[in-house]
Amino acid sequence: MKKKHLAVVLCSALVISLFTGCAAPKQQTNSKFEPLKTDLKVGMVTDAGTIDDKSFNQGTWEGVQGSGANSKYLKPTGTTEADYLKEITNLYDAGYKFIVTPGFKFETAIFQAQDRYTDAKFVLIDGYPHTGDYTPVVKENTVSIFFAEHESGFLAGVASALQVKDGNFGFIGGMEIPAVQKFNWGFQQGIQYANENLGTSITVKEENVVYQGSFDNVAAGQQLAAQMYDKGVKAIFTAAGGVGVGAITEAKERAASGQDVWVIGVDVDQYAEGLDEKTGKSIILTSAMKYIDVAAYDMIKAETEGTFPGGEILTFDAKNNGIGIPETNPNLSSDTISKTNDIFEKIKSGDIIVASENDGTLIK
């Protein structure tokens, strides 16, 4: 049985009071932050991927580093609750009492840690503490953060469809968890919207929607991408961490031989990852972004200002500028960017509602 996350959307007043000066412009990559004047020691424990995964771990770490705090990350030797608790304990014992963890795999570990280390603060991104029954237990020293991945995927779907115009698209997900599913479903809805309203003709076949089952199998990602490109897929949306890196590698190799193939990145702006130094061109068409770095930075900033939102479950979405696509898209035309920005405003205002669940008309 798949778990369902509880996500509480912040009201406008709370968003303004909590994130003033920190929220991202709707299409901007927040790669630079104002360093905070603090002696806070901030630790991070990575998930199954690496710190330079060009995705979730890296985005979180960039936000931590951007704070200017004394920071350190640890990579567990495994992915069990005990493995995560071990590294959380190592950070705590070394004096890092503000700890950021990316991903749902930390949920039961943080449930334990928030009671074990009551004088520490915890930021859990894309998850909430629970005992294993998925009932949220967010203590006053913990904050849980979620994102509207379906809205981000929708924008990427619209932009990609507008730019490519016709042909087949594919999707490669990592583990089949809610955050990854929402990226997929939003992407498909964005393509449908573009087909019905903006004159595009993009198809997504069931055989080209695949969940690999992990976030670190680079070789599998490259193999899956090769299979899709061989079947005529023009662009693949990857929401898969290291698996997506494999897809990017395959696309770069094909582009170097003259093939016209694309990847849509995820979580962070992956344009640079898809860049060929010889040609100066990138195979990253655009990226469905979650401002993970901003979320991590904002929570550190809130702690330094005495406004840490302990006990809260926060959602970053279009309404509070928590998701988007990169402002700079060298592979997108100005017309595509303009139309996609218009769509963003319609999502933000509520004129377009992107479904976060599959109504049965979407693939997986």
Describe, in plain words, how this protein is organized in 3D:
By secondary structure, the protein is of the alpha/beta class. Helices cover 37% and strands 21% of the residues. It folds into two domains: 12-147 and 291-316, Response regulator (Rossmann fold, 3-Layer(aba) Sandwich); 150-289 and 331-349, Response regulator (Rossmann fold, 3-Layer(aba) Sandwich). Strand 6, helix 6 (178-197) and strand 7 (201-211) form a beta-alpha-beta unit. It starts with 11 loop residues before the first helix and ends in a 15-residue tail after the last helix. The model is unreliable at 1-31 (pLDDT under 50).
Labels describing this entry:
364 residues; six-stranded parallel sheet; alpha/beta; Rossmann fold; 37% helix; 10 helices; six-stranded mixed sheet; 2 domains
Which SSEs are present, and which pair or pack?
Layout: H1 12-19, E1 41-45, H2 56-66, E2 70-74, H3 81-93, E3 98-102, H4 107-116, E4 121-125, E5 142-147, H5 149-164, E6 166-173, H6 178-197, E7 201-211, H7 218-230, E8 233-239, H8 242-256, E9 262-267, E10 275-276, E11 281-282, E12 284-290, H9 292-304, E13 313-316, E14 323-324, H10 334-349
Parallel strand pairs: 1-2, 1-3, 3-4, 4-5, 5-13, 6-7, 6-8, 8-9, 9-12
Antiparallel strand pairs: 10-11, 12-14
Strand content: 15-25%
Give the count of helical stretches: 10
Task: List SSEs in N-to-C order.
Answer: HEHEHEHEEHEHEHEHEEEEHEEH
Oligomer: single chain
Number of domains: 2
Distance between the termini: 15 Å
Task: List low-pLDDT spans.
Answer: 1-31
Task: Name the structural class.
Answer: alpha/beta
CATH superfamily label of the largest domain: Response regulator
Per the CATH scheme, the topology name of the largest domain is Rossmann fold
